[in-house]
Amino acid sequence: MAVIKKTPAEIEAMKEAGRLSAAVLREVGARCVPGASTLELDEFAEDYIRSHGGIPTFKGYGGFPGSICASINEQIVHGIPSPAVKLQSGDIISIDVGATVDGWAGDNAWTYAVGTISPEKKRLLEVTEKSMWAGISAARVGNRLGDIGHAVQSVAKKAGLGVVRDYTGHGIGRNMHEDPNVPNYGIRHTGMKLEAGMVLAIEPMLTLGTHKTHVMSDGWLVVTQDGKPAAHFEKTVAITEDGPILVSVEPDRERPI
Length: 257
Ligand code: MG
Known about the structure:
Layout: H1 8-30, H2 38-51, E1 55-56, E2 68-72, E3 75-77, E4 92-101, E5 104-113, H3 119-137, H4 145-158, E6 162-163, E7 169-171, E8 178-182, E9 199-202, E10 205-207, E11 213-215, E12 222-224, E13 230-232, E14 235-240, E15 243-246
The structure holds magnesium ion.
């Protein structure tokens, strides 16, 4: 499959989906408190997205039943929301959420601390976020795909954290998953050339232990093989001649790259 590049007007249109997916993520994050169930978070997210003119992108995607993925502690991605899963102080929870507006998909994720977390988990969150910003910063015309992966991996490696290899970022547009895959590891100056108009979801998944993963029996939930905690941060980014532009952000929350 070829990469589907977007025009500047299409990138502007994608920002609507990006804004809604960022807004709902922030609102869900604020509700990640001890006692909340992941199903409550999911129902809140679905209502929020629909009442703001969007469609929950994840719901029904490949048969996924939720509007969010809610993955706690050693769970890396694709946790199915459940009334039986209740948050406790000390947990970390990765929320991944997509919103489709006017046919364009927005996709982003963040790992939140529930109550008070250990210094180790705090460091995991800080480093994973930092690695995402490094990857975003490498999403420039003149660079190649391997530069993004290398940037993410370098931050993780320096901190001694594992980099999940079995799951990657991706192109995004009218479909949530488009070409190319965007690995969180790589060799500088290798891989596909980055060109203006590419829109990518950059989403490092780092761990406090092994990078090796295991899919649970529900066919969705992905966990670390060693049971050590994992974090997941994701933003959608457009590559332009003027540098990377954040797509999945709220206007008043944009930060320089
Ligand atoms: Mg994604």
